[in-house]
Design goal:
Blueprint lengths: L3 E7 L6 H6 L7 E6 L6 H7 L3 E4 L7 H9 L5 E4 L4 E3 L1 H12 L6 E4 L1 E5 L2 E3 L9 E6 L3 E2 L10 E2 L3 E3 L4 E3 L5 H23 L4 H26 L6 H24 L1
Parallel strand pairs: 1-2, 1-4, 2-3, 6-12, 7-13
Antiparallel strand pairs: 4-9, 5-13, 6-9, 7-8, 10-11
Helix pairs in contact: 5-7, 6-7
Length: about 260
């Protein structure tokens, strides 16, 4: 059986980390945690699970620290997790099968179930929310340019059906807090995107972010991808997902 390193980047995750690590303790040969100088008990919790802990800064692009964790892993395979995720029982068993096999596949896309305001969203483009998290050591890297980027894996990759469980928001207030940080990041990206654009191009971008993108995204998530089938949670998610575009652009203008 091949060995597995579970790697994470953390910052103030004392409420989530134990549940995450409990879901992989029987699977991981090594746990690597790169912590962005948390001010809560995150590091203490990680050490209780005999994790290799590396303390560093907390960059806005969190994938910088995720890549540091990947670089410090020593096992045959790497499973990259976020602290607010849990490996389901079925996924645990499936990963074990992969580690026991002689497959020539270098990476696996894993479907993710996202928990939002009391339920897992199954429509609105939220499931299956495939993410490339399991790959051979040395074959996968993160570009470290965007908060929602996927790993780049060299060689053959496949999809599996067993889900990763994602609990990103404790309540609506915590959702809005993360949403606010995300729009901050988008506003910086808009600034870089428009630095060398002329007046006409900036005007087109203004119309796009303030009007076209939010309308398109809401219709895509709520109507095309049937977000309405996820009850009121589906509406709230589609609405705020579309609202991120004009809010990010307004933040860019203020800067």
């Amino acid at each position: 059986m091949k060995k597995l390193s579970v790697v994470l980047a953390t910052y103030n995750e004392e409420k989530n980390l134990a549940n995450c690590l409990d879901s992989v303790t029987d699977l991981a040969d090594e746990i690597v945690v790169v912590d962005g100088t948390s001010v809560d008990k995150t590091v203490d919790i990680a050490k209780k699970y005999n994790a290799k802990v590396i303390i560093t800064t907390n960059p806005q692009i969190f994938h910088i620290n995720k890549q540091k964790a990947i670089d410090n892993a020593t096992s045959d395979w790497i499973l990259q997790l976020d602290a607010d995720e849990k490996v389901s029982h079925d996924l645990n068993s499936r990963i074990r099968e992969i580690l026991e096999s002689d497959t020539d596949i270098n990476g696996f896309w894993i479907p993710r179930k996202n928990y939002f305001l009391g339920k897992f969203l199954m429509k609105g483009g939220q499931y299956p929310d495939y993410t490339l998290r399991l790959y051979r050591r040395g074959k996968g890297r993160l570009p470290q340019k965007d908060v929602h980027e996927q790993a780049e894996v060299e060689g053959r990759v496949e999809y599996i059906k067993e889900p990763l469980l994602h609990y990103p928001y404790e309540d609506f207030a915590s959702y809005l807090k993360k949403w606010d940080k995300y729009t901050d990041i988008i506003s910086v990206q808009i600034k870089k995107e428009l630095e060398k654009k002329n007046t006409l191009e900036k005007t087109v971008s203004l119309i796009n972010y303030i009007l076209l993108k939010p309308i398109y995204w809401f219709l895509l998530a709520y109507i095309r991808h049937k977000g309405f089938m996820d009850s009121w949670q589906g509406f709230v998610f589609a609405f705020y997902s579309s609202l991120r575009f004009p809010v990010s652009y307004i933040k860019y203008l203020k800067k």
